[in-house]
C-alpha cells in the first residue's frame, strides 16, 4: 500500500512540475477553441457570400423588370402613334 501511495505522490508531483501548456487536456481545449473560432469565421464568410449573391440577384431582377416595363411602354406608344397620325390627317 505504501508503494501505491508513493507512486501516487510521485505522479502528483510530476503533474505539478509540468507546465499547464504541456497538459494534453489544455492542448485539447486550445484545439477545440481554435476550431470553434474557425467555424464561426467560416459561417460568417458564408453568410456574407449569400448576402452578396442575394443582392446581385435582386439587382438583376430589378434591372430586368425595368427593361421589361420600359419595353412594354415603348410598344404601347408605338402602337398608338399610327392612330394619332391618322387622326391628324383627317
Number of strands: 0
Helical residues, percent:
over 70%
The end-to-end distance, rounded to whole angstroms, is 125 Å
Work out the strand percent: under 5%
Shape: rod-shaped
The overall average pLDDT, rounded, is 84
Low-confidence stretches: none
Rounded to the nearest angstrom, the radius of gyration is 38 Å
Secondary structural class: mainly alpha
- Oligomer designation: single chain
**Sheet with most strands:** none
Instruction: Report the order of strands and helices.
Output: HH
Count of alpha and pi helical runs: 2
Word description of this protein:
The protein is mostly helical. The protein has a domain of 42 residues. Helices cover 91% and strands 0% of the residues. The protein has two helices and no strands. The longest helix is centred in the middle third of the chain and has 66 residues. It is rod-shaped. The model has no long low-confidence stretch (mean pLDDT 84).
Give a nutshell description of this structure.
This protein has 90 residues and is an all-alpha fold. The chain has two helices and no strands.
Provide the descriptors you would attach to this structure in a database record.
mainly alpha, 2 helices, 90 residues, single chain
Question: What's the helix and strand layout?
Answer:
Layout: H1 2-17, H2 24-89
Amino acid at each position: 500500500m505504501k508503494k501505491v501511495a508513493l507512486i501516487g505522490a510521485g505522479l502528483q508531483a510530476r503533474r505539478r512540475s509540468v507546465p499547464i501548456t504541456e497538459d494534453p487536456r489544455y492542448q485539447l481545449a486550445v484545439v477545440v477553441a481554435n476550431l470553434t473560432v474557425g467555424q464561426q469565421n467560416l459561417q460568417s464568410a458564408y453568410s456574407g457570400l449569400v448576402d452578396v449573391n442575394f443582392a446581385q440577384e435582386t439587382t438583376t431582377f430589378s434591372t430586368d423588370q425595368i427593361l421589361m416595363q420600359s419595353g412594354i411602354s415603348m410598344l404601347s406608344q408605338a402602337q398608338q402613334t399610327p392612330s394619332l397620325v391618322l387622326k391628324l390627317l383627317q
